[in-house]
Amino acid sequence: MDKKLLLEHGLTDAQSQQFERYFELLVEWNEKINLTAITEEYDVITKHFLDCLMCFDSKVIEDGVSVIDVGTGAGFPGIPLKIANPTLNVTLLDSLAKRLNFLNEVVGELKLNGITTVHARAEDGGRDKNLRQKFDVAVSRAVANLSTLSELCLPFVKVGGYFVSMKGPGAEDEIAAAKNAIKLLGGELQEVIHYHIPTTDLNHNLVIIKKIANTPDKYPRQAPKPAKMPLN
User: Is residue 107 part of a domain?
Assistant: First the structure.
């Protein structure tokens, strides 16, 4: 793997080697289960790894904080964040057991400590007393509208913590549509950070939502309501 791009972003050679092994496992497992449509090395480095690392631009993922990655899929952004900052306490939540088998192998192979996997739908995890309002930061790169994601992610966040939603271009309409839902769930839009993925023509957004009040007990609603009938 051409590690130059990773080294240019302040990663050590050891961290770059962890990303290299992560890439190898991703490609290997992708032949057995559907993890990603992106498999070319350069594209994985830029569109997955570097994109995930841009989460640090939010300034809320600080040393030692607890982070839950909701709907983590192939481990994005949770595993790249953990590799880049080993002090983070990371929980990877996903509803598909096969993906968790992959994630557990990655965690073992990369010798990552302070990272756990949870097999659950976000709708159920958000009601689990061991997970609800237990995290400093929730992150999600999942494909869903912001209103749905807010209902699925904000219940995990402590009051005073943050939800960081990774969004592609044109997030403004989603933000406007989710404004009331965010407030209802105890959140407040803090900032939208526009960023450019290095060496690509891609421009994405970080939507930073602060948790300012407890999420009402009735949220999240049972599946499939958050996705089928987003709060408005």
Answer: yes
